[in-house]
Amino acid sequence: MKTLPKVDVAIVGGGWTGLLMSKELGARTGLKVAVLERGQPRNRTAYVNGMDELDYAIRLRMMQDTSRETVTFRHSSSDRALPLRQWGSFLPGEGAGGAGEHWQGETPRFFPHIFEMRKRLTERYGAAKLPEGCAIQDWGIRYEELEPYYTRAEHLLGISGLGGADPFEGHRSADFPTPPMKLNHISVLFSDAARALGYHPCPLPSANLSTTFRNPDGVIRPACEYCGFCERFGCMVGAKAQPSNVLLPVIAKQKRVELRTGANVRRIVHKDGKATGVTYFDATGTEFFQPADLVVLSSWTLNNTRLLLLSKIGGPYNPATAQGQVGRNLTHQVMGSVQLLFDKPLNRFMGAGASGVMIGDLDADNFDHGPLDFIGGARVIASSSGARPIANFGAVSSSVTATWGSEWKREAIASFDRIAGIGAIGEHPSYRANYMDLDPRYRDQFGDPLLRMTIDYTDNERKLAAYVSGKLAEIGRKMGASEVLLPDPLGRYDVVRYKGTHIQGGTIMGANPETSALNPWLQHWQMSNLFILGASAMPQNPSGNPTLTLLALTMRTADALVGKYFKHPGPLA
What we know:
Elements: E1 2-3, E2 7-12, H1 16-28, E3 33-37, H2 44-49, H3 53-58, E4 71-74, E5 82-83, H4 117-125, H5 143-157, H6 185-196, E6 202-203, E7 213-214, E8 220-221, H7 243-246, H8 248-251, E9 257-261, E10 264-271, E11 274-281, E12 287-297, H9 301-310, E13 334-341, E14 356-359, E15 378-383, H10 405-415, E16 419-426, E17 435-443, E18 449-454, H11 459-478, E19 483-485, E20 530-532, H12 547-565
Parallel strand pairs: 1-12, 2-3, 2-12, 3-9, 4-18, 12-20
Antiparallel strand pairs: 4-5, 6-14, 7-8, 10-11, 11-12, 13-16, 13-19, 14-15, 15-16, 17-18
């Protein structure tokens, strides 16, 4: 193993949060910062020249290679876990920028009561309202503490939206920096129908620019062209905010920040309660030790948790006793939709990842759960991300019995531009039985145990899905659909159908070191020079997409490092 010259800060992971932290430290301190990213650099010209649907959206060019590293999955602690050989329910990104390169761009703020959800629910309904085995926790911070950072994050990315349009949104200190995106036909139909039914539709906050924008760092990006190649793709023109076009141009000018690609970090090295650096293999298989005074872990949710477990930092979670901090509160999402068939064309080929309308009336605790037998809600969205010929082909009327052959092809072609969906992104509460640990049987290319996911849905999520599906069907009929195709009832958690790359938990934040790995500043309770960024810090999954919140949390932590920690290193809480 080769020992490298010491740096002040080693950041593990070059996605949204890690690169944002490095940019902030590079701009505001004279510290030597090394960002260690196991993937390769991004060639932005490849987005222009190679946006092939089969290669990117079906064969998943931008995602982690499961032949080299994957995870194992089971429904309960009594089951044997098996490795995932291909990605289905979530898509971990690979390379500089991580999943922030292939994301869709939906950027809502979380509702204020999300951060104090356990307190809110028990005060309003009583503790008996919580499902059996529920482990939801408050975050240790309030919305008001995060609001200024939400504003900073929105202006960094140039979020398109309309402030004040969502009556459930928390206090806002500034409007969105750019106007809402153009609305497609299906969004207009949805908006009119939802309003007629008493809901409150508003434009979906979007990281796809509605107009040319210059952010506070001087980075200029053009407006969206509504080409329909957002999710699973990098943006061809740079209109979608991505680490490669928002952060890397600034970092490239910072002489004391180094982005080191091909660096696969295997352990956080520590001694006497302090992190001393990290070990990693480069692309040639050579092992290095990178000493550092401060370590920031900012890889994806599952990788953050696994690296902490492999490094033996913190107590592994035990679901039988609910003791231990690392691996607890694994959550994903409850996804649902209804398909609507119309008599007239919808021009679905025009769209963007976050061009649409949403309602928050059925989300979180924005409606009365007293007479209902579940907790949680869903953000309901009607959008057009741009129908593509492979992934979006094949939906037909329920009257068509054929599932292949000439009849099916004829009907699929006829309905291609006349069918659209209303989507619901539902909350997933945390449970004692859903967690992560190291698999005792399966190992990766380096001989290290794979991460094991133990996760399943409960009756609470099934009742939520059924309730919201009924509301979606009602809206769809009001929109004038000639046919409303309902989804199958929610069953067990599966790893086949895509649910979103929004997996949370494992190294959660909170006010109690017994039930959380991190304090409210994202600092490890037992190791004060270790900070952990990203969705692994979230105690449970609200319905909204998490990226904006994670960027806001990262900015808050950066302020704490610059304003407090570097002046007096030690615990911040």
